[in-house]
Amino acid sequence: MRIKGEVLEFPSYRVVEGDYRIRLDKNESPYDLPDRVKEEIFEELRGLSFNRYPDIVSMPAREAIADFYDVSPENIAVGNGGDELIGYLVRLFEGKYVVVTPPTFGMYSFYAKLEGIPIVEVPLREDFTIDGDAIADKAKNARAVFIASPNNPTGNLQPEEEIIKVLDTGTAVVLDEAYAEFAGKSLWRLIEEYPNLIVLRTFSKAFSLAGVRAGYLLADGEIVDALYHIKSPFSVGIMTMAAVKVVLRHYDLVERRVAEIIEERERIRRVFREFTYPSDANFLLMRLNAYEFLLEKGIVVRKLSGRLDGHIRVTVGRKWENRELVEALREYLEVEGCG
Ligand code: PMP
């Protein structure tokens, strides 16, 4: 027996576990759902049969999401987190390889590697924008191109005209908009114009449901149908679907919290402007080698490597957490003699 090395490099093994005071490492919402909203979910669950498998094509959740966007459920697919859908999207299309744009979200490459699919990298430009022409050049033989906007871990939205250049190749483009609510901008409506566009979204960030595991995509009906032909039948359970239905009724709450997170994000950025990149998401990329220093203070952030060696990615937390973060980083700068 020989175990595949790649499989053992699953990113979660690198996640810091333990009882840290302040966790700003996973780009979650710092706000749990209020009890009254949880009660509504419990109420929804009370009427469901726990002994039966969930709807095989997740119709209850797809209908709720379709109503929210005013599209057909045929344009929506739901997964056990956006991650599950990424796993299908690397496999769904014919072609030689997948195209990714590092530094970006690691799960595109993770699933491609797991499937033995070659990866072609078209690095982001100096300012972290995508190079539409360079990607288009590689797109011809690709199964799919993965573009995150806002990008993780750099935080920036990608220019629409560059995305269009890639869409015009006709190759499948997965536009990962996991953080779109914090950017106030989404290109999902382009699915009507581009049958090769797949817009990926998640309930894990702005909707406070990271623990529930719910992600979805908007795309042409043909893509959605094909995806349901390769999808794990019952990966989206009744509890997940109930939570999705209920949180969509409370979008006003989501919007209020998004506004608070944006306000805090900009406040932190103003303090460390020199070291912090602009962000359209719920996290900040900082050119500070402060990972270990912060960990000592009980604050966990994400340590970056490669091209972003010496940088950290910091999720915007609650006000008190951000205050402590700012205080700790000020101290770091003093110790380092940069303050
Ligand atoms: N895309 C990006 C860019 C992300 O950062 C994340 C979460 N870290 C996801 C997709 C997937 O999130 P989930 O599986 O929780 O829906």
How are the SSEs placed, and which strands pair?
Blueprint: H1 5-8, E1 22-23, H2 35-46, H3 59-69, E2 76-79, H4 82-92, E3 97-100, H5 107-114, E4 119-121, H6 132-139, E5 142-148, H7 160-167, E6 172-176, H8 180-183, E7 197-202, E8 215-219, H9 221-230, H10 238-248, H11 251-271, E9 283-286, H12 291-296, E10 299-300, E11 302-303, E12 312-315, H13 319-335
Parallel strand pairs: 1-10, 3-4, 3-5, 5-6, 6-7
Antiparallel strand pairs: 2-8, 7-8, 9-12, 11-12
Helix pairs in contact: 2-10, 3-10, 4-5, 6-7
Bound molecules: 4'-deoxy-4'-aminopyridoxal-5'-phosphate (PMP).
What does this structure look like?
The chain is 39% helix and 14% strand. With 339 residues, it is an alpha/beta fold. The chain folds into 2 domains: 96 residues, Aspartate Aminotransferase, domain 1; 214 residues, Type I PLP-dependent aspartate aminotransferase-like (Major domain) (Aspartate Aminotransferase, domain 2, 3-Layer(aba) Sandwich). It has a 7-stranded mixed sheet, with helices on both faces. Strands 9-12-11 form a 3-stranded antiparallel sheet, with no helix packed on it. A two-stranded parallel sheet has the order 1-10. Strand 11 and strand 12 form a beta hairpin. Helix 6 packs parallel to helix 7. The longest helix has 21 residues. The chain starts with a helix and ends with a helix. The structure holds 4'-deoxy-4'-aminopyridoxal-5'-phosphate. The site of 4'-deoxy-4'-aminopyridoxal-5'-phosphate has 13 residues, from helix 4.
The top-level CATH class of the largest domain is Alpha Beta
Helix content: 25-40%
Number of helices: 13
What do we call the CATH homologous superfamily of the largest domain? Type I PLP-dependent aspartate aminotransferase-like (Major domain)
Strand content: 5-15%
The number of domains is 2
CATH architecture of the largest domain: 3-Layer(aba) Sandwich
Which geometry do the CA atoms define? globular
Mean pLDDT: 95
Give the radius of gyration.
Answer: 20 Å
* Distinct ligand kinds: 4'-deoxy-4'-aminopyridoxal-5'-phosphate
